[in-house]
Amino acid sequence: MTRTISLPDGTCLPALGVGTWNMGDSTARREEEIASLRYAVEQGVQVVDTAEMYGNGRSEHLVGEAIAPLRKQVFLVSKVLPSNASAKGVAQSCRQSLRQLGTDRLDLYLLHWRGNVPLSETVEAFRTLQQEGLIRYWGVSNFDTDDMRDLERCIHPGECVANQILYSLEHRGVEYDLLTADRQRRVVSMAYSPIGQGGALLHNPVLGRVAARHTTSLGVATPAQVALAWVLRQPNMLAIPKAGTVAHMRLNLAAQELVLSAQDLAELDGAFAPPRRKEPLAMI
Q1: pLDDT tens digits along 22-55
Q2: Each residue of 163-203: pLDDT tens digit?
Q3: pTM metric for this prediction
Q4: Half-sphere exposure of 72 toward its Cβ, with a 13 Å CA cutoff?
Q5: Burial class of residue 108 (count of CB atoms within 10 Å of its CB; 0-12, 13-18, 19+)
């Protein structure tokens, strides 16, 4: 079962992509990380996400090497730091990312988080990159509801195609208003770290109980697969978990086979309560 999302212009993408935060930092793991990314693309994963910040460009270099023989199959995403979000900075950062990735265009370019540069200036810089053919689409990352309202004042409907946010069972605050608001704007929500950081989430006993009730083509489901399936169940949601090995990537892909029941969802709500009021946007 392959879930999909649609961009405002109708472009359809698989709802499961891959993130690359902290990839490319270890020479010992490099070959394995490249193999994992290539395996994902060969299995139909299209969205590969990176950023100029990740390892000061090391992630972009790794991604570029990994996808070189498969570039036409990849929807490539990178991000510009807010400190580089001026008209001049965006132009320079984009070209630097393209060099590091070994490609002539990005499919999606995101403002990594909001900084001090006026949004109107960054938006105009993105438009210029589109006119020059260096990026296909642009979007934002770590924008809360107020940020999105501010952005709306200086863009046309459908221009901002994505908002990359922290979303997982541990971080559900965006359910209160942001997910619905972005869906109404036809802005795709991209969930980073959908299965948590450091493994604490995956040791929750309720998550383990739910996993034990399910199987995939690889056997009994894992807590990580349940956590990922829980994120993927959301409409308009594109999840980008990291997987540094082929074995881990296989597990992530198999998570798409899971269909969580009403009982599963109720038990997970009991262990990870949905928000009852507006919460500050979580970021890592």
Answers
A1: 999 999 999 999 999 999 999 999 999 999 999 9
A2: 999 999 999 999 999 999 999 999 999 999 999 886 789 99
A3: 0.97
A4: 0
A5: buried
Using H for helix, E for strand and C for coil, what is the string for the chain? CCCEEECCCCCEEECECEECCCCCCCCCCHHHHHHHHHHHHHCCCCEEECCCCHHHHHHHHHHHHHHHHHHHHCEEEEEECHHHCCHHHHHHHHHHHHHHHCCCCEEEEEECCCCCCCHHHHHHHHHHHHHCCCEEEEEEECCCHHHHHHHHCCCCCCCEEEEEEECECCECHHHCCHHHHHHHHCCEEEEECCCCCCCCHHHCHHHHHHHHCCEECCEECCHHHHHHHHHHCCCCEEECCECCCHHHHHHHHHHHHCCCCHHHHHHHHHHCCCCCCCCCCCCC
Average pLDDT, rounded, for the chain:
97
Could you tell me which residues come within 8 angstroms of residue 138 by beta carbon, excluding any fewer than 6 positions away? Answer: 108, 109, 110, 111, 123, 126, 129, 130, 159, 160, 161
Total number of residues shown for the chain: 284
Q: Is the confidence at residue 1, as pLDDT, over 70?
A: no
